[in-house]
Amino acid sequence: MILIDTHCDTLSVMAGLGGDISVTGQTITPERMRQGGVTMQVCTLFAGVDGPAGDPAGLARKQLAAARGFTDEGIKHIKEFGEIEDGAPSILLSVEGAEIFEGSMESLRWYYDAGVRMCALTWNHENELGYPHCKDSEKPLKPFGWEAVREMNGLGVAVDVSHLGTGGFWDLIERAEKPPMASHSCCLALQPRFTRNLSDDQIKALIERGGWIGMNFCSAFLSDARATLDDIVRHIAHIAELGGVRNVGFGSDFDGIPCNPIGLDGPHDFPNLISALRGLFTPEEVEGIAGLNFIEYSKRL
Ligand SMILES: [Zn+2]
């Protein structure tokens, strides 16, 4: 089975930087990836909690260097979605917070050459591209944001709306050449406390455009208590009810979340989640959710 996870903060932890929040110890390891049958793990280069006011490019370079921790243990570092191969575990790079580019198209292309194939335009700060979900959310993308999106659409880099404000989100839905995706977000209708979750209108728009959504495993995004496997299944089922059973998958956020769900302490526990999904979905749908839906999405880029 092809199993894909589109978001983790493991490179931050490996580089000793902490993730989205302060996480100690590494949840995703090469050994656990193999145990859980993970085919491809997207590892993000995170801009850092201080955003543009910090040293996003410097932090990104440190995380890039930390990726060697995977390749040294026999995990392939792939640079194209077409290289995803059943039975050959791999990592692929993304960016979380495009202030890493420091407003430079040349820098964007440098990260592309380094293997970045997915990019969250913002984290939780305003940057050169646009505005996050948590402040001035409704403002549109900035001119450099559009320049960067056009370049990414041309290069085949997935534009990631997780953390982006609603203004930027609807801009992309209406005007971007290629379908956007959300690498690690859940359903606002089931957990309205988090503006990082997607509204039903946003989910329907992503489905209609041929986009893709990875479920975040953060307990607080899924439930009011510590999340269970059933909570993840419930959020996936909600997307399926909106017509997106072929547009959904996993974006664990491991190593960036403070509390993993019960029964899902790391990638080694993915078989538990697959079993839980089999209780509600057909074998074909489960294969899609596990990874094939993402592969199909990547072909639309
Ligand atoms: Zn995040």
Element layout with pairings:
Layout lengths: L3 E2 L4 H5 L15 H7 L3 E7 L9 H11 L1 H4 L4 E2 L12 E7 L8 H10 L1 E5 L22 H13 L2 E3 L5 H10 L5 E2 L17 H9 L3 E4 L3 H4 L6 H13 L6 E3 L19 H9 L4 H17 L2
Parallel strand pairs: 1-2, 2-4, 3-4, 4-5, 5-6, 7-8, 8-9
The structure holds zinc ion.
Task: Give a description of the structure.
The protein is of the alpha/beta class and 301 residues long. It has one domain (4-299): TIM Barrel. 37% of the residues lie in helices and 12% in strands. It has 12 helices and 9 strands. It has helices at 10-14, 30-36, 56-66, 68-71, 105-114, 143-155, 166-175, 200-208, 219-222, 229-241, 270-278, 283-299; strands at residues 4-5, 40-46, 76-77, 90-96, 116-120, 158-160, 181-182, 212-215, 248-250. Strands 1, 2, 3, 4, 5 and 6 form a 6-stranded parallel β-sheet that branches. Strands 7-8-9 form a 3-stranded parallel β-sheet. Helix 10 crosses helix 11. It is globular. 50% of the residues are buried. Bound molecules: zinc ion. The site of zinc ion (ZN) has 6 residues, from loops. The site of zinc ion has 6 residues, from loops.
Summarize it.
Helix content is 37%, strand content 12%.
Q: Work out the radius of gyration.
A: 17 Å
* CATH class membership: Alpha Beta
Counting DSSP H or I runs of 4 or more residues, the number of helices is 12
* Global geometry: globular
- Low-confidence region ranges: none
Proportion of residues in extended strands = 5-15%
Please provide the ordered H/E string of secondary-structure elements. Answer: EHHEHHEEHEHEHEHEHHEHH
Q: Can you say what the CATH homologous superfamily is?
A: Metal-dependent hydrolases
CATH topology: TIM Barrel
Mean pLDDT comes to 96
Query: Considering DSSP H and I runs of 4 or more, what fraction of the residues is helical?
Result: 25-40%
For the sheet with most strands, the description reads:
6 strands, parallel
CATH architecture: Alpha-Beta Barrel
Kindly, what is the distance between the CA atoms of the first and last residues, rounded to a whole number of angstroms?
23 Å
Give the cofactors and ligands: zinc ion
**What is the total domain count?**
1
List how many beta strands DSSP finds.
Answer: 9
In terms of structural class, how would the helical and strand content be classed? Answer: alpha/beta
